[in-house]
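Priority: medium. Attachment 1 of 2:
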C-alpha cells in the first residue's frame, strides 16, 4: 500500500505540530543541552533579535500580500507569498530557538509596572497565538502542497487559511512589540 500525504493531512499536521512544539518548549524550558549546540560569536548572537524583527516585519508584508493576491484571484502569487511567509517563520524560529538554547530567554529591562501590565500580557498573547497558529498553518500548508491548485478549492484550505493568516499576523505584530519593549524602548 502506497503512503500518500494528501490522504493523511490531519495526521501529518498533528505529527509536525507535536514535533515542532516539543522542540520549542524543549528549548524554552532548557531541555536541550547548550553543550550540544556550537556557540556563535557574541556579535552574531546579539544580532539575532534584530534580524528576527526584520524577518517578522517582512513576514507581515508577505502574509498581507498573500491575502491580497488570493482576494484578487491571483492564486500563484498568493502561493508564493504564503510559502515565503512560512520560510520566514521557519527561519525566525530556528534563529530564536538557537539563541534561547545558547543564551536563555531575554530578561525584561524596563520598569516593573510596564513588565506586569504591558510586557507580560503582550508576550503571553503572542506566545498563545504562536502555539495555536502552528497546527493551523501546517494544516493549511499541507492541504495546499498535497493537491493541485484546482483541488485545493474543494478543501478547508480557504476557511482555515483565513484563521491562519489572522493568527499569524497578530502573532508577528505582537512579537515586534515584544522586541521593541526589550531592545528599543528599554
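Attachment 2 of 2:
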Amino acid at each position: 500500500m502506497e503512503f500518500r500525504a494528501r490522504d493523511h493531512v490531519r495526521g501529518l499536521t498533528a505529527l509536525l505540530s507535536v514535533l515542532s512544539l516539543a522542540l520549542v518548549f524543549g528549548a524554552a524550558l532548557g531541555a536541550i543541552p547548550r553543550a550540544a549546540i556550537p556557540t556563535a560569536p557574541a556579535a552574531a548572537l546579539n544580532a539575532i533579535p534584530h534580524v528576527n524583527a526584520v524577518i517578522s516585519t517582512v513576514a507581515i508584508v508577505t502574509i498581507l500580500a498573500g491575502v491580497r493576491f488570493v482576494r484578487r484571484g491571483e492564486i500563484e502569487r498568493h502561493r508564493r507569498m504564503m510559502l515565503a511567509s512560512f520560510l520566514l517563520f521557519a527561519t525566525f524560529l530556528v534563529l530564536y530557538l538557537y539563541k534561547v538554547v545558547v543564551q536563555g530567554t531575554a530578561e525584561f529591562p524596563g520598569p516593573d509596572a510596564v513588565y506586569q501590565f504591558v510586557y507580560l500580557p503582550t508576550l503571553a498573547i503572542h506566545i498563545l497565538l504562536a502555539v495555536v497558529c502552528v497546527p493551523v498553518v501546517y494544516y493549511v500548508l499541507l492541504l495546499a502542497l498535497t493537491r493541485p491548485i484546482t483541488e485545493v478549492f474543494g478543501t478547508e484550505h480557504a476557511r482555515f487559511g483565513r484563521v491562519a493568516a489572522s493568527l499569524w499576523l497578530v502573532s508577528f505584530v505582537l512579537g515586534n512589540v515584544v522586541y521593541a519593549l526589550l531592545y528599543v524602548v528599554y
